[in-house]
Specification:
Elements lengths: L8 E3 L2 E3 L3 E3 L13 H12 L4 E8 L8 E2 L5 H12 L5 E7 L14 E2 L13 E2 L2 H20 L4 E5 L5 H6 L14 H18 L6 E8 L8 H14 L4 E6 L5 H4 L11 H8 L6 E3 L6 H9 L5 E3 L1 H6 L3 H6 L14 H8 L17 H4 L12 E5 L3 H12 L3 E5 L9 H4 L8 H14 L3 E3 L9 H4 L3 E4 L3 E2 L22 E3 H6 L7 E6 L5 H11 L3 E6 L14 H9 L3 E4 L2 E6 L3 E6 L6 E4 L2 E5 L3 E2 L4 H7 L3 E3 L9 H13 L2
Helix pairs in contact: 1-2, 3-5, 6-8, 14-16, 14-22, 19-20
Bound molecules: adenosine-5'-diphosphate.
């Protein structure tokens, strides 16, 4: 069934065992080094059957430091250890080779190096246009990095010519306004790229070491589109400079397109990739939220590409390929493209390390992988109360370790808050992980009791040695906005006010003009607004916070939502609070004070930080049963924390 995606392919004399690719992605795992944890992260996926991995950016020069650096004296030893670990599994390893240009900050604090003095939208520091000598220095640095990779036994390299980094900055008229041989005409703007490719080829010419390039449409007007990338492919083809072409999408002008969330359809990058790849006479890699071998096989079958990037899918389940090949596609833990762990944690300045909302072990393979679970020496009767993601993960792990697990869930379905989250437009994949966890706990023999609301009086009958309390959290409909905690919204008790949970669970919404009050800054406010618009209401969203949904920004979810909401009957006010609601209208005021004004509002949705459901805790303590509180019942946060705490609870019983 998967014969195309699982068939080998030759790239520059390298035989790649199948066509599943893990494209380069920053992890933060090594914190600047090729650490044992980073090697274990890749090794787990090599063991899991992936064909090719492109390792995250290797910087060629100190003017653009990265998590891996060609000028790091320890890197050669790291590569040796990595190749020793990966080789036995058959997966091939290419290294992505990179310079950020204006998207980087030199180690010595000097301005970024770039073709012209046009700053990056992300870094916002005016770069210094590179001199000819600096251009030559960087071209030489690419060649030296290529030699390093070959000498250290890697199978190839990928020159990063996409995502708005240095090479693409030279290609684009938006970032290259030079008047010398490197700017102006398309030929001149391509000169830097060609000098890099020729220098690299000159350094590592032998077959058996692949050299390719990553290209992407940058989605800016005047920038790099299909035509420009086709022109690059034609020139590379004419000179035989590339052994493969890897096609991606986006730049820092369109960051959410680089790592499309669940709102994007599977294969969303094909539209800009396939017309470019068609021009290539060497293997083409595409990417774009592919999750299953079935989807990837179809890409190859339709001739849209030769290899398929499945990066986030591999983060969610390192064993995706092996499981599918062995007839267990339904056991593959699905990536839900929530971007909470993989991108969100990486970009979060307090964390700077990849995680995964569905796979607690991602980035912690040496300690947290399912293969590291230690069977219990002392089987316990474990009662898990609550079948949301935290409870389900705890039950799964505890049962895997050999405990006798009962899970009680008040509702007729498992999934908890995920069952509400998936009701919002473009959030349907949230439920996929609930379905997977459900399948897994049944497979592990958990005794599941649905429609079972556990009260104080029921506890004794379960005869539990340990209780895991995963009862989630309740909306707090008290009208308190944290900017003015002593001044709850007047009229909050009226019938037309509801929580986002209510909104997503009632059969029909009544009203014309809705007001969403988001006191939290997660996704619920935006989800409620989009849901109400879909139901035909006009929507005003008000938040005391200075930006919309600030906690969802690192997951790259806010701008795409605004793009969808922008053309509709949607208005929003940041830095604003609600003074009162009365059934017809609401009175708003800037949080800093000043004139109040009114908006129409015959339906009000109040999104607040929920209150943990801990009613059972006293009775559990009185009964003297050891108890672990996890997930939203501990304190409400994102799915990634619910999964992590569920995993830890099951692991430590
Ligand atoms: P988390 O994200 O922490 O897993 P959720 O809110 O998703 O939290 O899930 C909590 C689940 O616990 C819900 O499905 C809810 O129905 C269930 N629940 C809450 N209280 C009880 C109870 N007393 N007995 C059984 N199930 C409960």
């Amino acid at each position: 069934m998967y014969e195309r995606i699982l068939s080998p392919i030759e790239i520059g004399g390298v035989i790649v065992p199948n066509r599943t690719v893990r494209t380069a992605h920053a992890t933060g795992i090594g914190a600047g080094r090729l650490s044992d944890d980073l090697i274990a992260y890749h090794e787990a996926r090599a063991r899991g059957g992936f064909g090719l991995t492109v390792v995250e950016i290797l910087s060629v020069h100190p003017t653009s430091p990265a998590s891996l650096n060609a000028f790091d004296p320890t890197i050669a030893d790291g590569y040796k250890r990595m190749m020793d670990a990966i080789r036995p599994h058959g997966m091939k390893l290419f290294q992505q080779v990179w310079h950020a240009g204006h998207n980087g900050l030199p180690i010595d604090g000097s301005p970024p190096w770039a073709p012209s003095d046009i700053p990056s939208p992300m870094v916002g520091i005016v770069p210094r246009p590179m001199s000819k000598a600096q251009i030559d220095e960087i071209v030489g640095a690419y060649a030296a990095a290529a030699r390093l990779c070959r000498d250290c036994g890697l199978d190839g390299i990928e020159i990063h010519g996409a995502h708005g980094y240095l090479i693409q900055q030279f290609l684009s008229t938006n970032t290259n306004v030079r008047e010398d041989d490197y700017g102006g005409s398309p030929e001149n703007r391509m000169r830097f790229l060609l000098e890099v490719m020729r220098a690299v080829r000159g350094e590592v010419a032998e077959p058996g070491f692949a050299v390719g390039i990553r290209l992407a449409a940058d989605l800016t007007s005047g920038g790099i589109g299909i035509a420009e990338n086709r022109a690059v492919v034609e020139v590379l083809k004419a000179e035989g400079l590339a052994d493969f072409i890897n096609l991606s999408l986006g730049s820092y002008h369109s960051f959410p397109k680089m790592i499309g969330g669940m709102h994007e359809p599977v294969g969303y990058e094909l539209e800009t990739a396939t017309p470019v790849g068609e021009r290539s006479n060497v293997p083409v890699i595409v990417t774009g939220r592919f999750r299953t071998l079935e989807e990837a096989d179809q890409v190859v079958r339709l001739g849209q590409a030769d290899l398929v990037g499945m990066t986030r899918a591999s983060i969610a389940d390192p064993d995706l390929v092996v499981k599918t090949r062995n007839g267990q596609a339904d056991r593959v833990r699905p990536c839900i493209a929530c971007n909470q762990g993989c991108v969100g944690q990486l970009l979060d300045p307090t964390q700077r390390r990849i995680g995964c909302a569905v796979n607690a072990a991602a980035g912690f393979e040496t300690t947290l992988g399912d293969d590291k679970l230690i069977p219990t020496g002392q089987q316990k009767n474990v009662l898990v109360i609550g079948g949301g993601p935290a409870g389900l993960e705890a039950a799964r792990v505890a049962a895997k370790r050999g405990h006798q697990v009962t899970l009680a869930e008040a509702m007729p379905d498992l999934g908890g808050a995920l069952n509400l989250a998936d009701k919002a437009p473009r959030r349907q994949t949230m439920r996929d992980i609930a379905k997977w966890l459900e399948g897994e706990i049944y497979a592990e023999g958990v005794d599941v009791r649905l429609s079972t609301y556990v009260t104080d009086d029921d506890l004794a009958a379960f005869n539990a040695d340990h209780i895991i309390l995963a009862t989630g959290a309740e909306p707090r409909l008290d009208g308190v906005q944290l900017s003015h905690p002593g001044e709850p919204i007047e009229g909050i008790g009226l019938d037309h006010v509801m929580s986002s949970n209510n909104l997503l669970s009632i059969p029909a919404v009544k009203g014309t003009n809705a007001l969403v009050i988001d006191d939290v800054g997660h996704y619920e406010g935006l989800a409620s607004a989009e849901y109400l618009l879909q139901e035909g209401l006009n929507v005003t969203l008000v938040t005391r916070l200075p930006t919309l949904a600030p906690h969802m920004r690192t997951a790259l979810m806010v701008d795409p939502a605004l793009e969808r909401l922008g053309n509709r009957n949607f208005t929003y006010h940041v830095g604003t609070r609600v003074l009162s609601v009365n059934g017809q209208s609401a009175t708003l005021q800037p949080v800093t004070g000043g004139d109040a004004w009114q908006v129409n509002a015959d339906l009000v949705v109040f999104v607040s930080l929920n209150r943990p459901r801990l009613e059972l805790l006293d009775a559990i303590e009185r009964a003297g049963v050891p108890c672990t509180v996890i997930g939203d019942a501990n304190t409400p946060r994102f799915l990634v924390r619910a999964t992590a705490e569920g995993n830890a609870a099951g692991r430590t019983l």
